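Help needed: design a sequence for this.
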């Protein structure tokens, strides 16, 4: 979230992260890195909110107005258009915080979309749709689900980052969660993150990502609007993860550099991991027109 700190009553025990048990420290570390990973998604949501007035945190009925049974659901919410989160409401016992334990979290996933677990990257079985279900969530995990058909621009985390201002310089990892037809879309907003030049000098860029499933070929495309934020040249895509891939590709082509890309297909996870990339997000290359970046050939 944009604002994050430890809350508590003045009479409670010290709540600084380094004063907690090792397991709680690790959970806090995971949450902070998760926030770092999502920072571009979050920043893009704020741009959309400023431009179109759409809320960042949305009740379920906002995204799914036809699902009347979700109108009174106050145990989960949408974080933008793509992410559903069900917070852990029940606190663990004093004994549990020292051991491995799970939280029982109640979720209800609308069948208007397919859903993926953020933790496992696996598609959620249909029996979890359209009815409240209890899900066991590990103490180091969050009950976070991704709506199929979305591309999330994630910040690559190396595990040594001590400040977001340093981590923000890292390259991107595109996480592509295919819908039932193999399509996905996503956007990325870029400016300097510090000044008002996005407003006074139009120094901003909005990048669009597309995943099209064509016969025997899946194509990832990119374009950007007519504005151009020059430093976005330095923001590159280092990896692409595609989830919901039923069949193993025979080849993945880095179209931008006209070469075969290094990739790994995970049959059990139905995912493709493409690595060692150096794909540009903007730099004026994509203004006003689509360009192919990757092709998965089956």
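Sure. Designed sequence:
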């Amino acid at each position: 979230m944009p604002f994050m700190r430890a809350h508590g009553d003045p009479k409670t025990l010290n709540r600084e992260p380094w004063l907690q048990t090792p397991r709680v420290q690790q959970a806090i570390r995971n949450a902070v890195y998760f926030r770092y990973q999502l920072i571009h998604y979050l920043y893009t949501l704020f741009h959309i909110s400023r431009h179109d007035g759409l809320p960042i945190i949305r009740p379920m009925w906002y995204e799914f107005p036809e699902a009347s049974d979700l109108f009174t659901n106050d145990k989960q919410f949408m974080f933008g258009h793509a992410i559903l989160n069900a917070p852990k409401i029940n606190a663990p016992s004093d004994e549990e915080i020292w051991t491995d334990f799970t939280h029982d979290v109640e979720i209800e996933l609308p069948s208007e979309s397919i859903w993926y677990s953020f933790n496992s990257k696996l598609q959620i079985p249909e029996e979890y749709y359209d009815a409240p279900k209890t899900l066991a969530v590990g103490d180091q995990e969050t009950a976070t689900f991704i709506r199929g058909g979305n591309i999330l621009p994630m910040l690559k985390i190396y595990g040594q980052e001590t400040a977001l201002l340093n981590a923000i310089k890292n390259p991107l990892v595109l996480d592509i969660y295919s819908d039932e037809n193999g399509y996905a879309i996503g956007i990325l907003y870029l400016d300097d993150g510090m000044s008002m030049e996005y407003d006074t000098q139009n120094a901003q860029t909005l990048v669009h990502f597309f995943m099209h499933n064509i016969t025997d070929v899946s194509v990832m495309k990119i374009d950007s609007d007519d504005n151009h934020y020059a430093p976005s040249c330095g923001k590159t895509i280092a990896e692409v993860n595609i989830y919901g891939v039923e069949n193993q590709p025979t080849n993945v082509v880095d179209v931008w550099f006209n070469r075969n890309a290094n990739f790994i297909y995970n049959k059990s996870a139905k995912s493709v991991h493409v690595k060692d990339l150096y794909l540009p997000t903007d730099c004026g290359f994509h203004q006003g027109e689509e360009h192919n970046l990757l092709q998965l050939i089956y």
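The mean pLDDT is 85.
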